[in-house]
Amino acid sequence: MKTMKKGFMVSAAMITILAMIVGCGSNNNKGTNASPSGDEASKSPEKSPSKTEKVKIIYSMWGSEEEGNKTQEAADKFNATQDRIEVEVQAIPWESYMTKLNTQATAGQLPDTGILKEDGVIQWSSDGMLNDVSTMYEGSDSKPLDSLAYKYQGKTVAYAAANEILLLYYNKDMFDKANVPYPPSVLDKAWTWDEFVATAKKLTNDKNGKHPGDDGFDSQSIVQYGASVENLAWQLETWALSNGGGFYNNDGTEVRIGEDASVEAIQKVADLYLKDHVAPLSVGQTDDGIQRTIIAGTVAMATNGQWNVGTSLNAAKEAGLKYGVAVLPYMKEKVTLNTGGANVVFSQTKHPKEAMEWLKWYTAEENNWGLISSGIWMPVLEKWYTDETLTHKWVDNPNFPPYEEYKSAVVDYAQSSAARPASWFYTNYTTEFNTLLSSSLGDVWTGKTTAKDAIAKNLEALKAANKGDK
After folding, report:
1. Cα(401)–Cα(90) distance, rounded to whole angstroms?
2. Helix or strand holding residue 369 (H, E)
3. Where is the composition biased (Basic and acidic residues) (predicted)?
4. Rounded to an integer, what distance in angstroms lies between the CA atom of residue 159 and that of residue 360?
5. The domain at 166-338+421-467 falls in which architecture?
6. pTM metric for this prediction
7. CATH class held by domain 12-163+340-381
8. H or E element at residue 435
9. Could you give the count of Cα atoms lying within 13 Å of 254 in the half-sphere of its Cβ?
């Protein structure tokens, strides 16, 4: 799912102070600082509706008006299944989503439930803004994979709405024209980093058709690049882990990004542009990598999330783009990250039970099938990955690459030992950490400094960010 345009997270104390300023005494402010233990969820609503009065639930999501309408269609189906709950979808543009939620939180006017960006879940929970949803799937066989649970102090405070992983996309026409074999879709045959770079050089052309390493190659007149590795801060964790390092220790309480293996991995990504001359310059600030590379027709292969199949590549495919999917290359260990925007129940709601009932229904695959069949979401239940009949139902459709290719590079890959949860499933303050890391690496991408020097210069600040210290 789309991620990581950073939203400013308001602390619980600041929320309380500002709420007093903008709405002192308002009933809407009740529950703003509810305990994340879920005690509020176990209490009865302040007022029980009559048999003819439906409980109204507001569900917020990021996306366009069209995406909001599609989600409302699903909500309408839910509304028609019973006469107790009425769900209304609130679609907010991606660029302003977290700003809007923070404003609503300050005013005590958050929706009842909604999707929350991955990097904010643990922090919002620690600030008392989320209900404990540990009991949401009790007695049900539709509980999502354990790897998709966001946990704070041992409590499940959210489940990912989808199981997304990072992939390697490629332009088949560019590979065919260069007579270069396609990237492997099978994990056992994954390219090493050196093989990846060597292939990227064969696919990089200057205006005279020369490749990096050829006599007379002009790095200032490249017309086609061989590769692009997304360098948004959170996706860089993939390469730190692949190189034997990481951003954090296993429970997210200590920072490892200063280790040689982590620094070396980030420098290798930077060197794709600086030294290997196979990648365009990217400064790691915008989440539109596939649009800028594969869809723009300027790059032969690029890394990014599976959600791009549905959010942008379907339309490009209809326009004539022939693209494929493959597993990521690796440095020392085979790694991809799994992630997914979190469906949460906000602590300000007066109707946590009804909000959870809606989420439980909505996240069942059969009830959001349009998002799955279009390629925006991946299923959250294990059976869709292991039951061949269900896998065919999911993958055998014209929105996806060929079945065997996609099943291997996505379905099997997501269930392999290479798939690891992104750190925001269990680590607090990843918003601050990733924001600081992104700004620290700005001069690395342009070659003004090295990853080693940039991280060393900011290491103490990164450690402080991990602790929530300003």
Report:
1. 32
2. helix 369-373
3. 40-53
4. 10
5. 3-Layer(aba) Sandwich (3.40)
6. 0.82
7. alpha beta
8. helix 430-440
9. 6
